[in-house]
Amino acid sequence: MNTWKESEVRRYVAITKMIVASIGAHPDDVELGMGGTLAKHSKRGDEIHIITCILGIGGISGDPKIREEEASHPESLKLLWVITNG
pTM of the prediction? Predict the structure, then answer.
């Protein structure tokens, strides 16, 4: 059985960073459906990209501006280990 030392694991993780792209049809689909997985990847240092195909206009789910505010709320981002660029 191969047992890895913590330093070996850290080095392996450091050189195996992933770029993760998650695609959702509507605002908040990705966050609700994949939030835990994205948080795990973000916490390990992987690069996360969320792609939303439509703004949610015309549906019964509300105003797109409100959905955008909800998706970028600081507490939500903190829960998902999101680091923003600005």
Answer: 0.55
Domain ranges in the chain are: 18-79
The whole-number average pLDDT for the span 40-69 is: 76
Buried b (16+ CB within 10 A) or exposed e, 39-48: bebbeeeeeb
The C-alpha atoms of residue 63 and residue 34 are separated, in whole angstroms, by 22
Q: Amino acid letter at 45?
A: G
pLDDT tens, position by position, 53-67: 876 666 565 666 776
- Of residues 85 and 6, more confidently modeled: 6
Question: Where do the DSSP E strands lie in 1-86?
Answer: 19-24, 47-52
What's the rounded Cα separation, in Å, for the pair 77 and 69? 11
Backbone region of residue 8 per phi and psi (left: phi > 0; alpha: psi in -120 to 50; beta: other values)? alpha
Rg of the chain on CA atoms, in Å: 16
> CA 33 from chain center: how many Å?
10
